[in-house]
Amino acid sequence: MKRLVYAILLVIAVLAAMLIAPQVIGDKGYVLISMGQLHIEMSVVSLCITVFFSLLALWIIWRLLSRTLGLFKGSRQWFGGLSRRKRQRRFYNGLQLMVEGDFIAAKKALQDTTDGDFDGVNFLAAAQVAKALNEPERVRYLLDRAAEFNNAKVAARVALARLDLEQGHQQDALDKLNELDEKAQKNPQVIRLKARAMGELGQWQSLEEVLPQWRKPLKDDYVLWAQKIAKGKFAEIASKQGANALKQHWENMPRKARADNAYRAAYAQQLLEQGMHKEAETCLVEWQKKGPDPILLPYMAQISIPNPANAIRALEQWIKQDDTNPVLFSCLGQLALNAGDDILAEKVLLKAIKLHENQQDLIALAEIRERKQDATGALAMYKRSMEVSQNALV
Which residues pair with 42 in a beta bridge? Predict the structure, then answer.
C-alpha cells in the first residue's frame, strides 16, 4: 500500500514539473521528428508526457506478461496480493482451529500455507497439529522444514530434540542441539534439554564441568541439576565401592563443592540410602548451624535412629525462634516417629496440622492412633488425609 501511495505521489510530482516548468521559464520549446515523408512536431511538454505514458504502458504490459507466464509455470501467486491474503487467512484460521482443538481442520488449513512467507512459523504450527494427531513422521518432516528458516531454526531444533528425548534417543537430541550456533547455545530451553540429555546419558562429569556456566539461564533448576549430578556420581561410587569410599570421595572434593547445599543434599541422601543415618545426622546438623535450610531440612525427617538427640535439639531450637512454621513441626514429628517416640511425635504433629494440614503428617498421626488402639481416631485421620489429598488435586 505504501509503494502505491509513493508511486502516485511521484507521478503527480513529475506531471506537475512538466506542466509548471515551461510556464516558469516562459519558453515551451518544440521537438521536430522527421523520418522520410513523416514529420512529427510537438512541444517539449507533449514529448515528456508521451514518453512518460509510453513507459507506464510498457510496465503494465510487462507485469501482465509476468503474471501470465507464472500461471503456466504453476506459480501459487497468480493474483499477487489477493493470493497472499488468502494464505494469511488460512494461516490464522489454522492457528485458531488448533487452539480450539479441531486438529483435522487445522491440518487442512495449514497445508495451504506451505508456499507462504511465514518465516517457518506455519511449519511449527503444523508440527504441533501433527503431534496432536499422533503423526510422528509428519512431525519430524515439518520440523525439518521449519529449521530451514533462521527465525524458526532454534524452536524447530528444540522441538526435535525434545521428541528424540521422549523416544529415548538422547545422543541424537544432544547432537541436534550442539549443531546450533553460539547465540542459540545460550537459550535457556536449549540448555535445559542439553542438561537432560547429558544426565540421561550418564555424562555426569561433563555436565558438572559446564553447569557453573549455565547457572544464570537455569535459575532455580541449577540446584536441581547440581543435586542430580552429585546424586549420580555418589550413587555410582556407593554402588561400586561402598559407603566408606563414598565418605572418602566426599572428603577429597574441593571445599567449594562441599559448601554447596545441592552437593550436601545429594551426599546426605546417599548416606541415608547406605544406612548411615548417624553420619547423616551429624552432617545435617553441622551444615545448618546458622539455621534451617530449605534444601537440607527435608532430609532430617528421614533420619531413623533410636536417639537422634542432636537433630531433635536443633529442631527444638529453631521452633523456639519460629513457632509458626509448620515445616519445622512436621520435620520434628517425623524424626520422633522414626525414633519410636510416639508421645513427642503426636504432640508436634498435631501442632503441625493445626498450622497447615498435609497428607504425610495426617497418615503419621493415624499410625500413632492405631498403635494406641484408638481405631476411631485413626480412621478420622485417614479420612482427613484423603480429603486433603483430593483438595490438593483440585
Answer: 31
- The C-alpha atoms of residue 20 and residue 241 are separated, in whole angstroms, by 99
Between residues 42 and 116, the one the model is more confident about: 42
The b/e string for 234-251 (b: 16+ C-beta within 10 A; e otherwise) is bbebbeeeebeebbeebe
With residue 122 as reference, give the H or E element that holds it.
helix 121-132
The whole-angstrom separation of Cα 142 and Cα 152 is 12
Alpha carbon distance 171, 59 (integer Å) = 57
- In the three-class reduction of DSSP (H, G, I as helix; E, B as strand; rest coil), residue 282 is classed as helix
Q: What is the pLDDT of residue 390?
A: 81
Q: Contact, 121 vs 136, CB < 8 A? A: no
pLDDT category, 272, cuts 50, 70, 90? very high
DSSP code of residue 181: -
Torsion of CA 53, 58, 59, 65, to 10 degrees: 150
Cβ neighbour number for residue 120 with a 10 Å cutoff: 21
Please state the length of the chain: 394
CA distances from 319 to 242, 312, 323, 331, 342 (A): 36, 10, 5, 11, 19
Long-range contacts of 192-200 (CB under 8 A, 24+ apart): 192/218, 192/221, 193/158, 193/161, 193/162, 193/165, 195/221, 195/225, 196/165, 197/161, 197/165, 197/170, 197/171, 197/173, 198/174, 199/225, 199/228, 199/229, 199/232, 200/165, 200/170
CA distances (Å), 298 to each of 246, 247, 266, 295, 393, in order?
21, 21, 12, 7, 22
Which helix H or strand E contains 162, and what residues bound it? helix 150-166
Residues 6+ apart with CB under 8 A from 91: 109, 110, 113, 116, 118, 122, 125
Phi, psi of 254 (to 5 degrees): -60, 150
Phi, psi angles (nearest 5°) of residue 392 = -70, -25
φ and ψ of 255, to 5 deg? -60, -35
- CA 44 – CA 60 distance, rounded (Å): 24
- Tens digits of per-residue pLDDT, 277-330? 999 999 999 999 999 999 999 999 999 999 999 999 999 999 999 999 999 999
**Residue 180, all three cell numbers:** 546450533
